[in-house]
Design goal:
By secondary structure, the protein is of the alpha/beta class. The protein has one domain (2-316): 3-Layer(aba) Sandwich (Rossmann fold), CATH 3.40.50.1820. Helices cover 30% and strands 24% of the residues. It is built from 8 helices and 11 strands. The protein has helices spanning 91-104, 123-136, 146-151, 164-178, 209-223, 264-276, 295-298, 303-316; strands spanning 5-9, 13-16, 21-23, 40-48, 53-60, 72-78, 107-111, 152-162, 185-191, 250-258, 282-288. An 8-stranded mixed beta sheet has the order 4-5-7-6-8-9-10-11, sandwiched between helices. The chain has a 3-stranded antiparallel beta sheet with strand order 1-2-3, with no helix packed on it. A hairpin with a 3-residue loop joins strand 1 (5-9) and strand 2 (13-16). The mean pLDDT is 95. This is Alpha/beta hydrolase fold-3 domain-containing protein. Pfam families: Abhydrolase_3. It comes from Brassica campestris. Residues 75-296 form the Alpha/beta hydrolase fold-3 domain. GO terms for molecular function: carboxylic ester hydrolase activity.
């Protein structure tokens, strides 16, 4: 009943007194397919028995023919959805990653992680790192999953994500640097990253108190209620905190922002902070001034989405 509603956070979730969580979007799933008449074959493989979590693997069907033993670039993808909704199995992410695999001729591993509010942050970060470690256990060719053993080029590993997934992509690269992950990650694609803080990063950042408060409430009440510093938690406030980015564990970073996205100034400030940090890699910024948050997923066949798609594919096929 409506009276049993504790809180509502459109367009994401409703939370009820009995603890039930109703997700308002991102709940549909699409099955895998080993049908080799498709451009891409896919399958789900469990990487965490403890939490019953899987990755969805995508492989160009021509790679399964066995006629070409050349290793493929490896894309590790972390989906967005405010840490609350969506999954690697939803049509949005299944179709997008499959299209990338077709165009880039790469192997992709799309990560499932535990979501808030049932599993508040940092569960999603811990799961994503666990998946990265599981994937890298194949780097010597003797891991548990044949597709990764046989096809992944661990000299060309890229991690990419959008929104909350872009935030986590950054933190995976930071942890990779800290823990000296070997082989090294070649590049990360941070697309419309969900970075935030109590205060605006500059005079062009969102000044509207109600909007800032709404984002803060979602983080503090739903996503990460255990954060000591609220929205200034270094996991969320990457730009405004004293986080040292110089140890980022990759060679190159693509930062994509959209001019009409609430997070645009945070994304630009992140790129600027990274360039000034002493980190030795290359940073490229791509901006679509007339577009909004994750426009490339919401309208994937638009002209600007197609343009960004080509840039993303070019990034993850860097030799």
């Amino acid at each position: 009943m409506e009276s049993d509603l504790v809180s509502e956070h459109p367009p994401f979730i409703r939370i009820y007194k009995d603890g039930r969580v109703e997700r308002l979007t991102g709940t549909e799933t699409i099955p895998t397919s080993l049908d080799k008449t498709n451009d891409v074959v896919s399958k789900d493989v469990q990487y965490s028995r403890e939490h019953n979590l899987s990755v969805r693997l995508f492989l160009p069907h021509k790679a399964t023919a066995g006629t070409n033993s050349k290793k493929l670039p490896l894309l590790i993808y972390i989906h967005g959805g405010a840490w609350i909704i969506e999954s690697p199995f939803s049509p949005t992410y299944h179709n997008y990653v499959a299209d990338v695999v077709t165009s880039a001729n790469c192997l992709a591993v799309s990560i499932q992680y535990r979501r808030a509010p049932e599993h508040p942050v940092p569960a999603s970060y811990e799961d994503s790192w666990s998946a990265v470690e599981w994937i890298f256990s194949h780097s010597d060719g003797s891991g548990p999953e044949d597709w990764i053993n046989e096809h992944a080029d661990f000299g060309r590993v890229f991690i990419g994500g959008d929104s909350a997934g872009a935030n986590m992509t950054h933190h995976m690269a930071m942890r990779a640097g800290k823990e000296k992950l070997d082989p090294k990650i070649k590049g990360i694609a941070v697309v419309h990253p969900a970075f935030w803080g109590t205060d605006p990063v500059d005079e062009h950042d969102v000044q509207d108190r109600e909007m800032r408060s709404g984002i803060a409430q979602l983080w503090e009440k739903v996503v990460s209620p255990n954060s000591v510093n609220g929205t200034d938690d270094p996991l969320f406030n990457v730009v405004g905190s004293d986080s040292d980015l110089s140890g980022l564990g990759c060679e190159m970073v693509l930062v994509a922002v959209a001019g009409k996205d609430v997070f645009v100034r945070q994304g630009l400030a992140y790129a600027a902070k990274l360039k000034k940090s002493g980190w030795k890699g290359d940073v490229e910024v791509v901006e679509e001034e007339e577009e909004g948050h994750v426009f490339h997923l919401q309208n994937p066949h638009s002209e600007n989405a197609s343009k960004f798609f080509e840039r993303f594919v070019k990034f993850i096929t860097t030799p």
